[in-house]
Amino acid sequence: MFASYKTRRKITMDKREIFDNELQELAQFAKVISHPARLAILKHLSKTKTCISGDISDHLPLSRTTVSQHLKELKDFGLIHGEVEGLRINYCLCGSTLKKFKSLFNEFFIDESFCFNNQC
In the Cβ-directed half-sphere of 12, how many Cα atoms lie within 13 Å? Predict the structure, then answer.
Protein backbone atom coordinates (compact mmCIF):
# COMPACT_ATOMS: atom_id res chain seq x y z
CA MET A 1 0.00 0.00 0.00
CA PHE A 2 2.77 2.47 0.86
CA ALA A 3 4.51 2.04 -2.50
CA SER A 4 1.32 2.64 -4.46
CA TYR A 5 0.60 5.77 -2.39
CA LYS A 6 4.08 7.16 -3.14
CA THR A 7 3.68 6.41 -6.85
CA ARG A 8 0.24 7.99 -7.00
CA ARG A 9 1.40 11.02 -5.04
CA LYS A 10 4.41 11.60 -7.32
CA ILE A 11 2.22 11.43 -10.42
CA THR A 12 -0.24 13.97 -9.06
CA MET A 13 2.46 16.37 -7.78
CA ASP A 14 4.69 16.51 -10.89
CA LYS A 15 2.92 18.94 -13.21
CA ARG A 16 5.91 20.15 -15.23
CA GLU A 17 4.63 18.45 -18.39
CA ILE A 18 1.69 20.87 -18.56
CA PHE A 19 4.10 23.73 -19.29
CA ASP A 20 5.67 24.32 -22.68
CA ASN A 21 9.20 23.14 -23.41
CA GLU A 22 10.66 26.64 -23.29
CA LEU A 23 9.42 27.24 -19.74
CA GLN A 24 10.69 23.82 -18.68
CA GLU A 25 14.11 24.58 -20.17
CA LEU A 26 14.28 27.98 -18.47
CA ALA A 27 13.31 26.43 -15.15
CA GLN A 28 15.98 23.75 -15.47
CA PHE A 29 18.59 26.36 -16.40
CA ALA A 30 17.57 28.51 -13.41
CA LYS A 31 17.87 25.48 -11.16
CA VAL A 32 21.37 24.69 -12.42
CA ILE A 33 22.64 28.25 -11.92
CA SER A 34 20.77 28.80 -8.65
CA HIS A 35 23.76 27.88 -6.47
CA PRO A 36 26.27 30.67 -5.74
CA ALA A 37 29.19 28.25 -6.17
CA ARG A 38 28.10 27.47 -9.72
CA LEU A 39 27.71 31.16 -10.48
CA ALA A 40 31.21 31.76 -9.08
CA ILE A 41 32.62 29.03 -11.33
CA LEU A 42 30.89 30.47 -14.39
CA LYS A 43 32.05 33.97 -13.49
CA HIS A 44 35.63 32.77 -13.03
CA LEU A 45 35.63 30.97 -16.37
CA SER A 46 34.13 34.05 -18.01
CA LYS A 47 36.74 36.38 -16.52
CA THR A 48 39.64 34.26 -17.72
CA LYS A 49 38.34 34.47 -21.31
CA THR A 50 40.11 31.20 -22.01
CA CYS A 51 39.90 27.57 -21.04
CA ILE A 52 41.35 26.67 -17.67
CA SER A 53 43.58 23.69 -17.32
CA GLY A 54 44.04 22.51 -13.78
CA ASP A 55 42.25 22.91 -10.50
CA ILE A 56 39.61 25.63 -10.45
CA SER A 57 39.38 25.30 -6.66
CA ASP A 58 42.75 27.11 -6.50
CA HIS A 59 40.87 30.24 -7.59
CA LEU A 60 37.72 29.86 -5.48
CA PRO A 61 37.14 29.66 -1.71
CA LEU A 62 35.77 26.11 -2.06
CA SER A 63 37.17 22.64 -1.57
CA ARG A 64 38.17 20.54 -4.56
CA THR A 65 35.35 18.11 -3.83
CA THR A 66 32.76 20.89 -3.76
CA VAL A 67 34.08 22.44 -6.97
CA SER A 68 34.10 19.02 -8.63
CA GLN A 69 30.45 18.41 -7.74
CA HIS A 70 29.40 21.79 -9.11
CA LEU A 71 31.50 21.36 -12.26
CA LYS A 72 29.68 18.10 -12.89
CA GLU A 73 26.28 19.83 -12.67
CA LEU A 74 27.39 22.59 -15.03
CA LYS A 75 28.92 20.10 -17.45
CA ASP A 76 25.88 17.77 -17.39
CA PHE A 77 23.66 20.70 -18.35
CA GLY A 78 26.04 21.77 -21.10
CA LEU A 79 27.11 25.14 -19.71
CA ILE A 80 30.77 24.10 -19.67
CA HIS A 81 32.99 21.63 -21.44
CA GLY A 82 35.57 19.59 -19.58
CA GLU A 83 38.06 17.69 -21.70
CA VAL A 84 40.82 15.51 -20.32
CA GLU A 85 44.30 16.53 -21.42
CA GLY A 86 46.83 14.21 -19.84
CA LEU A 87 46.42 14.39 -16.08
CA ARG A 88 44.42 17.60 -16.17
CA ILE A 89 40.96 18.63 -17.28
CA ASN A 90 40.57 21.65 -19.51
CA TYR A 91 37.37 23.59 -18.63
CA CYS A 92 35.69 26.06 -21.00
CA LEU A 93 32.39 27.88 -21.12
CA CYS A 94 29.99 26.58 -23.74
CA GLY A 95 29.18 29.79 -25.60
CA SER A 96 26.32 28.37 -27.66
CA THR A 97 24.43 27.11 -24.60
CA LEU A 98 24.98 30.36 -22.71
CA LYS A 99 23.82 32.43 -25.69
CA LYS A 100 20.71 30.26 -26.05
CA PHE A 101 19.63 30.74 -22.44
CA LYS A 102 20.55 34.41 -22.35
CA SER A 103 18.31 34.87 -25.38
CA LEU A 104 15.48 32.82 -23.84
CA PHE A 105 15.62 34.86 -20.62
CA ASN A 106 15.73 38.14 -22.54
CA GLU A 107 12.64 37.11 -24.52
CA PHE A 108 10.93 35.94 -21.34
CA PHE A 109 11.42 39.23 -19.50
CA ILE A 110 10.66 41.42 -22.53
CA ASP A 111 7.19 39.90 -22.66
CA GLU A 112 4.73 42.79 -22.46
CA SER A 113 2.79 41.13 -19.66
CA PHE A 114 5.56 42.11 -17.24
CA CYS A 115 5.38 45.62 -15.92
CA PHE A 116 8.41 47.79 -15.45
CA ASN A 117 9.17 51.35 -14.36
CA ASN A 118 7.26 50.92 -11.07
CA GLN A 119 3.90 50.86 -12.89
CA CYS A 120 2.66 47.68 -11.24
Answer: 6
